[in-house]
């Protein structure tokens, strides 16, 4: 075990991730610009009893960052995981920042991550293992945070590039996208967010994820909203309205074993349901796979006009297309 390098080890996510990996016995190398930030991070990790190395470097300074990474390798060996958590978080609208300001933000938000990955990923690939995990944010761009939105889009693209270049050699590149303000005791508690990094690092290759989205637990569920609309249309026997909730190329299997594709076939299926049949839906679980994909399970109790009740389990994948959530895949199984 060669340890974890945490770049951007400030209070919040950086320290929480350091504590999480230290709890598993990983030696920790902490990289931050300020000495006080490093001392605080080291104190946070200290109770775990693992070796800790503090390294002062500005992520926008390529030579300083590369030198810090070289020191981490010299002390602990090639790391098992590198976490890039540095960012310039500032409110700015289009046209507000001068070019220099955008370049400074881009240098920290994206280029520093690229520098760290380019410095360590080739050796990780030669070894055949390693994780490069980047902190993302802004699942959708916000004009009030223009430079940050641009930077987080860059992070998402960088993950894809790293996976294309090094994924086949065993290097897992992924981002954790945080959709809200980080604060202890909230839905965005840094310790909860840190669990994503640990889980990503431990994933076997055939189950690699490349983006995890951390959202507010109290936020209304995508599937709940879709299935509320589905239930309303079902109870009113509106096949075309129900079909409009599906993507044009949706895959669909109802209680019958035949597989259907597309809205026209979905509408035909629901047109055959006897009028007066009603449904009661309970969403069991929902997982945000990415900013545009959600999957989950629901149970439905169908009540026929005769009063007979039939219960089924639904497996659903929903996709965001042009800012509208649609059912991409639907599978029903009798209980």
UniProtKB/TrEMBL annotation:
Pfam family, one: SnoaL_3
Domain SnoaL-like: 226-332
Tree of life domain: Bacteria
Gene3D superfamilies: 3.10.450.50, NAD(P)-binding Rossmann-like Domain
Matching SUPFAM superfamilies: NAD(P)-binding Rossmann-fold domains, NTF2-like
Protein name as it appears in the record: Uncharacterized protein (TIGR02246 family)
Organism: Actinomadura luteofluorescens
